[in-house]
């Protein structure tokens, strides 16, 4: 293993990092490649100029330093990058927008900051586009993590039985319900599929009255679904 010679003396450019990364996000990331790509994103975005900053998949694939840090072999590194980006998007530390235009498709990644969220919202509403080609028609696809990635990121590893149940549930419930049900399970410290399934089944039988946004994490909510599991 090659040793690190130490940081150089003198004035150096630094990369700003929000304290929230160390206080919240760092404790959640359990994959080395995801951590590397997340840190790389902070660094690369800090080097860019302008009010709206983003990373393109094409430029990341062209960055030999990034790919080498992920693997010594290019094909393996590209696969690791794709998986790390998927994990970061599922965790919502990065926001992904796929844009199809006459010139082909491209993938854009924004940090999940107020400016990043505003940029993605502006793209989806047609108010702004990163291509700069105002006359070129585009189709915008905002990436949403699939149910299997959401489960692995927030609940636990996938067993064959759980995978089969998730696949069945995917054809039964709206996609957005999974994100909200999993978020409730995490917030209520009940990270298991039975709890998530109980939320989904209750919404289906009793009706889902709100989007789940802003719901407070109370013992009453937790008890409600635990009681439902026992019915």
What is the compact description of this entry?
This protein is α+β, with helices and mostly antiparallel strands.
Write the layout of secondary structure elements.
Layout: H1 19-28, H2 32-47, E1 55-56, H3 57-61, H4 64-70, H5 74-91, E2 94-101, E3 104-111, H6 114-124, E4 138-142, H7 147-154, H8 160-170, H9 175-187, H10 193-206, H11 219-230
Antiparallel strand pairs: 1-3, 2-3, 2-4
Q: Count the strands? A: 4
CATH topology annotation of the largest domain: Arc Repressor Mutant, subunit A
Counting structural domains, the number is: 2
**Could you say what the CATH architecture of the largest domain is?**
Orthogonal Bundle
Strand order of the largest sheet: 1-3-2-4
The largest sheet is: 4 strands, antiparallel
Task: Bin the strand percentage.
Answer: 5-15%
Q: Structural class of the secondary structure composition?
A: alpha+beta
